[in-house]
Amino acid sequence: MEQNDSIWTDSYGNQLFGVHAAGTCFGEFCPIHNVSDHPLKDAPQRWRSDYRLERVCEHGIGHPDPDDYKSRAIKSVHGCDGCCVPKDN
Fold first, then answer.
1. How many Cα neighbours within 13 Å face the side chain of 62?
2. What residue ranges do the domains of the chain occupy?
3. pLDDT band at residue 1 under the 50/70/90 scheme
């Protein structure tokens, strides 16, 4: 079967249809095509029913993906355990 580039599957098997093509991302970073260097960049991704993408930390807590423009546009409230906060070097 041929891969359809407009369908993306998250780490939990949820599918998102109508995904934009690589190179046509909105903004510099994209949670699917061009991930920024943030603390949860390698954490599993989960597509939420409220049409936002989150990263799930090792403790099972969902954190808004900072590369998802919808999460940046609104102040996302979540049960934070600190995993999404950049560590001081």
1. 15
2. 1-89
3. very low
Residue 8, classed as helix, strand or coil, is: strand
Contacts within 8 Å (CB) and 24+ apart, 7-14: 8/32, 10/44, 10/45, 10/46, 10/47, 10/53, 11/44, 11/45, 11/46, 11/56, 12/44, 12/46, 12/47, 14/46, 14/47
pLDDT of 76 strictly over 70: no
CA separation, residue 42 to residues 3, 4, 16, 34, 85 (Å): 24, 24, 19, 12, 14
For residue range 9-44, what is the model confidence (pLDDT) as tens digits? 999 999 999 999 999 998 889 999 999 999 999 999
